[in-house]
């Protein structure tokens, strides 16, 4: 069996970067693949650079995003629409595959060809050092993703095309949280045991930690949480998993622990209060805990601005555990 694997790469103004991702696909020891690059409207030299690849290898295809909304999820879904493969790998344009990646994955598919998806470890590259991100043994991988504990990135799963199309691909319009949103829906819809997390395997892809502009990244997280929390709450209700909503409170902890910066932008005050209300509205925080958190938050703001010595009772993770 030599299944065709479609690798889908969204890109935007990544000339000089996307080449590494495409080169890693070309270097695969497994040869039955196609690579679909979907451009999100680049205005640099990306198109010119990609033209050379199109002439060199007929397995590489190029598409422009031809509809709204802008963003990587839309580009991935356009790629999925055009993909001819039996299996799908989504690869970000600043990450790359190791040469044995597809060969390793297809070998596992041959053993468990009825499974809907497989997950493989990745390496994380930082300061020119690559370390394997270990995937822990877990009875229910839904829980970590509901708890803002993201165990893998976009390129780690390989999807049976029928299953990822059943999920309708990525939810479009999310600036961030594309991976947990998709993985949560996958775990809610997959038949019990009909997937495999290959935690003991060597890492076969590399994720490069990107440096984000702090304010822009924070705003993307805020806008994503406004969409993510209602959508996931609805999905849990539809799948009779409403008791798991409590785990989503960890995303609010994530906001206060890593993204709340009161002096950088006074708009953050309103953003934080609005997020507290969203988590209350969807039953993730009780009214009592919401009141307590709002009080802690206002105490933090008052002490920060007036006393110049913030009283921090909002970043402790223990507080968010119901």
Taken as a percent bin, the fraction of beta residues is 15-25%
Order of helices and strands: EHEHEHEEHEEEHEHHEEHHHH
Q: What is the CATH superfamily of the largest domain?
A: Spore Coat Polysaccharide Biosynthesis Protein SpsA, Chain A
Task: Name the overall outline.
Answer: globular
Which class of the largest domain in CATH terms? Alpha Beta
How many domains make up the coordinates? Answer: 2
By CATH, the architecture of the largest domain is named Alpha-Beta Complex
Estimated helix fraction: 40-55%
Q: Mind telling me the C-alpha Rg?
A: 21 Å
The total strand number stands at: 11
What is the arithmetic mean of pLDDT? 94
Secondary structure class reads alpha/beta
* Biggest beta sheet summary: 7 strands, mixed
Counting DSSP H or I runs of 4 or more residues, the number of helices is: 11
Strand order of the largest sheet: 3-2-1-4-9-6-10
Distance between the terminal alpha carbons, to the nearest Å? 49 Å
Task: Summarize, please.
The chain is 43% helix and 15% strand.
Structure description:
By secondary structure, the protein is an alpha/beta fold. The protein has two domains: 5-208, Alpha-Beta Complex (Spore Coat Polysaccharide Biosynthesis Protein SpsA, Chain A), CATH 3.90.550; 214-320, no CATH class. The chain is built from eleven helices and eleven strands. The strands form two sheets. The protein has a seven-stranded mixed sheet with strand order 3-2-1-4-9-6-10, sandwiched between helices. A four-stranded mixed sheet has the order 5-11-7-8. Helix 2 (46-56) links the parallel strand 2 (33-39) and strand 3. Helix 8 runs parallel beside helix 10 (267-281) and helix 10 runs antiparallel to helix 11 (287-307). The protein starts with a strand and ends in a 15-residue tail after the last helix.
């Amino acid at each position: 069996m030599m299944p065709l694997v479609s690798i889908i790469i969204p890109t935007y103004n990544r000339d000089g970067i996307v080449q590494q991702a495409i080169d890693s696909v070309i270097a695969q020891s497994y040869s039955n693949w196609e690579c679909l690059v979907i451009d999100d409207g680049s205005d640099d030299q990306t198109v010119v650079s990609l033209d050379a690849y199109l002439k060199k290898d007929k397995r590489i295809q190029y598409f422009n995003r031809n509809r709204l909304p802008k963003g990587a999820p839309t580009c991935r879904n356009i790629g999925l629409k055009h993909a001819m493969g039996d299996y799908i790998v989504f690869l970000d344009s600043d990450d790359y595959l190791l040469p044995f990646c597809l060969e390793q994955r297809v070998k596992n598919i041959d053993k468990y060809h009825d499974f809907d998806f497989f997950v493989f470890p990745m390496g994380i590259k930082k300061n020119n050092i690559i370390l394997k991100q270990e995937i822990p043994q877990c009875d229910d991988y839904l829980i970590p993703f509901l708890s803002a504990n993201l165990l893998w990135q976009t390129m780690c799963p390989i999807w049976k095309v029928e299953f990822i199309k059943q999920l309708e691909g990525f939810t479009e319009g999310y600036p961030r949280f594309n991976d947990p949103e998709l993985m949560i829906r996958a775990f809610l819809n997959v038949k019990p045991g009909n997937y495999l997390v290959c935690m003991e395997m060597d890492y076969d892809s590399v994720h490069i930690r990107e440096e984000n502009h702090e304010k822009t990244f924070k705003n993307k997280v805020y806008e994503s949480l406004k969409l993510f929390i209602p959508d996931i709450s609805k999905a849990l209700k539809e799948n009779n998993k409403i008791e798991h909503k409590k785990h989503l409170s960890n995303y609010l902890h994530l906001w206060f622990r890593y993204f709340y910066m009161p002096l950088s932008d006074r708009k953050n005050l309103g953003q934080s209060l609005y997020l507290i209300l969203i988590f209350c509205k969807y039953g993730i925080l009780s009214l009592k805990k919401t009141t307590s958190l709002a009080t802690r938050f206002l105490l933090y703001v008052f002490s920060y601005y007036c006393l110049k010595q913030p009283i921090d009772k909002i970043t402790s993770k223990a507080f968010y555990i119901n």
